[in-house]
Amino acid sequence: MDQNSTTTLGGIVGTTPPRLNGIETRSIDYVPENERHGRVADQGPFWFLGNFQFFTIAIGFVGPGMGLSLGYTVLAGTLGILFGTLFMAFHASQGAHLGLPQMIQSRAQFGYRGVVVVLLGTAFTYIGFNVVDTVLMASGLKAIFGWSPTVVAIATAVLALALAVYGHDWLHRVFKWLLIASLPLYIILSLAIVFGGVGGKIDHPATFTLVAFASQFAASASYNITYAPYVSDYSRYLPRNTRPRSIITAVFVGASASAIWLIALGAWLATRLGASDGLMALNGAGNAVFHGFGAVISLVSIGAMAATMGLNAYSAMLTIVTGLDSFRSVKPTRAIRVITLVVLTVLWVGISLAVSGNAIDILFAALTMMLYLLVPWTAINLVDYFFVRRGRYAITHLFTPEGIYGAWGTRGLVSYAIGFASTIPFFVLPGVYTGAAAQRLGGVDIAWVVGLVVSTAAYLLPWRTLDTAAESAAIAASEIELTAQ
Predict the structure, then answer these.
(1) Any idea where the domains of the chain sit in the sequence?
(2) Which of 433, 454, 457, 455 is nearest to 445 (CA)?
(3) Residue 429 belongs to what H/E stretch?
(4) Which is higher by pLDDT, 369 or 95?
(5) Domain 5-368: CATH superfamily, name plus number
């Protein structure tokens, strides 16, 4: 038996409580109440830092790149972020209530094995984002300091790997440190811009087009929606009796505030300085405040992005282990988490070193495709949790194909297929494919909105066919079993 394992109960491996300074002992298994040491106060800063780096600045380039004015770009970005963060924040409340990673909980909708359909999309998204982050960091640091892209890719990957291996507590701890380092720097830069310390050189036309406004809204909304598949991974150590409203509020404020701030900053850099690269723009604007400030704020932003890569790697590990467990029972030990993370790191570094600038454009299109794949999932998961089962699940049954949720969740899989199929005519994948409906809309991307609406309706409308009362006995037995751990 693994040195960290003590008992096996209902398919859930019991382990010793995690050591705060050691490698996390939990992965895809249930977190018992006596190990719930998380605090709601940490959720806001954690997700604030998750968006507090130069990648977010680039989201503010979308509108200006299509001719949208500064004011309209900021408005569209703000509205988009507020809308997209709603979905992310509501998922966060599931972690504390259920004590499970998000993808394990999704077995209730898609089945013990059927959840793999969604896992494929989420795993690709995590790896894809780390590839994009690595290439952007490597190219930016080469342009600013002349550093070797290969060295940058490997060094940042090692940092992200170490953070993901140590897990939940160290992710929260490092994010807090980076926020303390980052916040004063961005305040100084923002104040300098407001009071004229960074002079704008371009007279950007004050224009408005619906296509540009909608594109900026969609880019901003989708930015935080992509956090939905793994936000619960970082709230599952909160006490079970934590008020959902407090979790939702903390995550919503944290994730939206930093994104709105930096998207507005990016819009200013694009419209006043003609910026088209987030890191280069950050460095140039910083040096306009005083020489050397650009290098400092750029390196701190790189640190925040490397930490976010650790966040992606950690959740990718949970996703891969969940997928393996769906077909062959996996004991969630430290060894399996380390091996999985090493393989994932080698994979994203290898892809990062192989792709070219043009390949990055293709990858961004692929990530957009992943958004289309994930949106029906978030709709189904939230509808099931808040409106159908109302948060009542037999947790031990999520770890066996013979449980009440079955191996394949027909209702969830069919609703997902209907929702995804409805988005195809609205696809906007630049240089790859634009659907007929999207062409009639002038290229405005509303595919993800269609996916949300149709998936919600497909899952929610026939909800009376599900006998939730029949699950009560299994839920009661599950609670007794969990309490006995």
Answers:
(1) 5-368
(2) 433
(3) strand 428-429
(4) 95
(5) Hydantoin permease (1.10.4160.10)
